From TrEMBL:
Signal peptide: none annotated. Residues 26-213 form the Thioredoxin domain. SUPFAM superfamilies: Thioredoxin-like (SSF52833). Belongs to the thioredoxin family. DsbA subfamily. This is Thioredoxin. InterPro entries: Thioredoxin-like_fold, Thioredoxin-like_sf, Thioredoxin_domain. It comes from the Bacteria.
Length: 214
């Protein structure tokens, strides 16, 4: 083998090795990015509406309790839970919009109820009564406190959690995660960390069916 051929083969070998390194580094970077996105889509302390023993998919909704679109989607999500609740983990993330006067208060009320194990009852209460309190331009703290009383919560503890810095930071973190994931409005849905843009219940159901088949 001539010296020129040996040099050429060496160059090819080094080039291929470099490509392999780039590919491995790229794959590692993609994996790290996917892991980072997954951690922002669902946090360990994100409230769950269902926790099946063997979850085959995760459904996440970034929502605003004062958002009419979220109120309209609420029955569809409930129907999905009835159909897929034994296979799918349903997760809620808080995303109160600045234009909704009482959205942050509602989120804090639900988060405070969650501290006493009453996340779902307060979640339901907010949507079941949304038409009566949504779009009002006056503070509705007293109304939300009355909901807590109806649920039989420890009111001193509820008040402390409702006004706590920890609750505010929890909601702020959800909003920050949502923005990092590209959430610009509500409701916004993710299935297995993938953003979906449904236009109907059938779109949501089909997306879940597809995720369950994977």
């Amino acid at each position: 083998m001539s010296r020129t051929v040996k040099i050429s083969l060496a160059v090819v070998f080094v080039f291929c090795l470099a490509l392999t390194v780039v590919f491995v580094v790229s794959r590692a970077g993609d994996s790290e990015q996917a892991a980072a996105q997954a951690s922002m889509t669902v946090r360990d302390d994100s409230p769950r509406l269902s926790t099946p023993t063997e979850s085959k998919a995760t459904f996440v909704e970034f929502l605003d309790f004062e958002c009419e679109g979220c109120g309209a989607a609420y029955p569809a999500v409930e129907q999905l839970r009835q159909t897929y609740g034994d296979q799918v983990t349903f997760v809620v993330r808080y995303f109160p919009l600045p234009g909704h006067f009482n959205a942050d208060r509602a989120a804090r009320a639900v988060a405070a109820a969650a501290e006493q194990g009453q996340f779902e009852p307060m979640y339901r209460k907010m949507f079941d009564t949304q038409r009566s309190w949504g779009e009002q331009r006056v503070p509705l703290d007293d109304l939300f406190f009355s909901y807590a009383q109806e649920l039989g919560l420890d009111m001193d503890r509820f008040a402390a959690d409702y006004n706590s810095q920890a609750t505010r930071e929890l909601i702020d973190r959800d909003v920050a995660d949502g923005k990092a994931l590209g959430v610009t409005g509500t409701p916004t849905f993710f299935i297995n960390d993938e953003l979906i843009k449904p236009e109907s219940y059938d779109d949501l159901s089909s997306a879940l069916e597809s995720a369950l088949r994977q």
